[in-house]
Specification:
The protein is of the alpha/beta class. The chain contains 11 helices and 9 strands. It has a single domain, classed as Alpha/Beta hydrolase fold, catalytic domain (Rossmann fold, 3-Layer(aba) Sandwich). Helices cover 34% and strands 18% of the residues. Strands 1-2-3-5-4-6-7-8-9 form a 9-stranded mixed beta sheet, with helices on both faces.
Length: 317
């Protein structure tokens, strides 16, 4: 895949204007205050999945409107963890299987793998009246007419409540939000909405600079927005206004925790300019790892150890 976005020297200067509406902070304060009125504690049931080197728990916690969201809690066996990494998943992925999530625990960190409501490889159905159980992706224009109704309002609320659940369940001293692609966008949302994070690890993060993404990328999920607006061009400004409430660069401008980004310069799914948009607006200390010849896999296994080293530099384990 050849490079399809801006050259690196232009990416390093790319800093579009923020798109948040005047009521952005009030919108999210109201949303999260309502979600936190549900005080049911998270439930963790120990499960045997055949992986003997870790302790594994099937977790259910209250997300948007108190609706149940699932997750795996994977702990290093026989020892307390100083760090807990709350990891969000990519588009369509869900929490998957426990054996796909062993690296952090193998390195001595607690790992809370959060499911994504309605995604086809997840277990968390979206039982809200406007949606359904797990199904194939197609979320970007669900509720495009109104931020109150958009799917991403529910998904981001779930992410914030996942951090609340991790604090209740894991007695870790340090807390990180992480994820690839959509999961990276959710980590950025959490970085701007949750106080007291110690690290943020967004890998090739999706959900940033929506207008640019819809103009540049010819792959889903950004393509969903372009396809919608081909049929309803008169709804473009309304749609991008709605998406601004869920834009990673607007959350990044409110973040304070140290962050390690990754970007792939041949990524056809998440154009690197959209990653740099969030990176350049990130208000806390931030660094970025650039993978010039990689597509949406980003740095893959190489970058996984970059994340481990970054966390170790913030607080050894």
């Amino acid at each position: 895949m050849p490079m399809l976005d801006l050259p690196l020297d232009q990416l390093e200067r790319y800093r579009p204007a923020l798109t948040h509406e005047p009521d952005f902070d009030a919108f999210w304060a109201k949303t999260l205050d309502a979600a936190r009125t549900v005080t049911d504690p998270p439930k963790a049931v120990r499960v045997d999945v055949g992986v003997r080197a870790v302790d594994t728990y099937d977790v259910t916690f209250a997300g948007w409107a108190g609706e149940p969201v699932r997750g795996w809690l994977v702990l290093p066996r026989g020892r307390a963890a100083r760090w807990c990494v709350v990891e969000f998943q990519g588009y369509g992925v869900g929490r998957g299987r426990v054996h796909e999530h062993l690296l952090y625990a193998a390195c001595g960190l607690a790992h809370f793998v959060v499911d994504a409501r309605g995604h086809s490889r997840g277990d968390t159905g979206d039982i809200s009246p406007v949606s359904s159980g797990p199904h194939e992706p197609g979320f970007m224009t669900q509720g495009a007419h109104d931020p109150e109704a958009h799917y991403l309002r529910r998904l981001i609320t779930d992410a914030v409540r996942a951090v609340d659940a991790a604090r209740d369940l894991v007695g870790a001293e340090l807390l990180a939000a992480a994820g690839p692609s959509q999961g990276g966008g959710l980590a950025l949302a959490v970085s701007g909405l949750v106080a007291g994070l110690d690290a943020v690890l967004p890998d090739v993060p999706f959900l940033c600079d929506h207008r640019r993404g819809a103009l540049v990328s010819d792959r889903v999920p950004f393509l969903e927005v372009a396809q919608f607006l081909r049929k309803r061009p008169e709804l473009a400004e309304e749609t991008f206004r709605t998406l601004s409430y869920f834009d990673g660069m607007n959350f990044a401008a409110r973040a304070t925790a140290p962050a390690l980004f990754s970007v792939a310069l041949m990524d056809p799914v998440v154009p690197p300019s959209t990653v740099y948009a969030a990176y350049h607006h990130y208000a806390g200390p931030a660094d970025i790892r650039v993978y010039p010849f990689n597509e949406h896999e980003g740095g893959g296994a190489l970058h996984a150890m970059e994340r481990i080293d970054f966390l170790r530099g913030l607080g050894d384990f």
